Amino acid sequence: MEPTTRTVPGPVKRTALNPTLRKESVAALGAFSALTLGTAVAGGRQRPADQLWYRRLHKPPFQPPAKVFAPVWTVLYGLIAISGWRVWTAPAGPARSKALGWWGVQMGLNAAWSWLFFNRHQPRRALVDIVALLGSIGAYTANARKVDRPAARMMVPYLAWVGFANVLNAEIVRRNR
After folding, report:
1. Vertex 48, ends 128 and 168: CA angle to 5°?
2. Contact between 103 and 88 (Cβ < 8 Å)
């Protein structure tokens, strides 16, 4: 029988799921998908109560057109959900628990950004949030790598996009002092 844990550093080698865990795994994928969808819906509902406020902001010339955001976030949210699920399906242990904790933190910060920026009209506070979000995604990715390397690699596009969003947010703050 092949062991499911290692005593040396590195990701745990996966084995086929126990048949009794398959139902749990499907339920967990549904839960990770629902949590991610909830974050996406919460963020998508945060439109400026005053559309004029957003239109009047001085934005950088490198800001993508509005039509780019929905398809990009759809892909990113799918990767986030699957990544979290893959980490959850790994054998239990401190590394998995730490990674899942960071997964939850980054989801909360993700949801908070839209509320701060669009609903509260606070680009500076949103910038603080998105810097923390970038750090939490990095922490999740680093911890997920110890548990499941493909799960960590799934976060690379999200890291890149949020890094770019940091630059956009900072530039909006700078241009609208």
Report:
1. 40
2. no
The fraction of the chain above a pLDDT of 70, given in percent, is: 82
Residues 6+ apart with CB under 8 A from 81: 29, 32, 33, 35, 36, 37
Give, as one character, the DSSP assignment of residue 124.
H
Residue type, 175: R
> For residue 120, what is the DSSP state?
S
d(CA 147, CA 83): 11
What pTM did the predictor assign?
0.81
Average pLDDT over residues 23-27: 74
- Rounded Cα gap, residues 74 and 26, in angstroms: 21
Q: Provide the CA 130 distance to its chain's centre, in angstroms.
A: 11
**DSSP alpha helix (H) spans, the chain:** 19-45, 51-56, 66-89, 94-114, 123-147, 149-153, 156-175
What local confidence, expressed as pLDDT, does residue 28 receive? 75
Q: pLDDT tens digits, residue range 92-146?
A: 999 999 999 999 999 999 999 988 998 899 999 999 999 999 999 999 999 999 9
- The residues, any chain, with a CB within 8 Å of residue 136's CB and separated by 6 or more, are 102, 105, 106, 109
Question: What stretch of H or E contains 7?
Answer: none
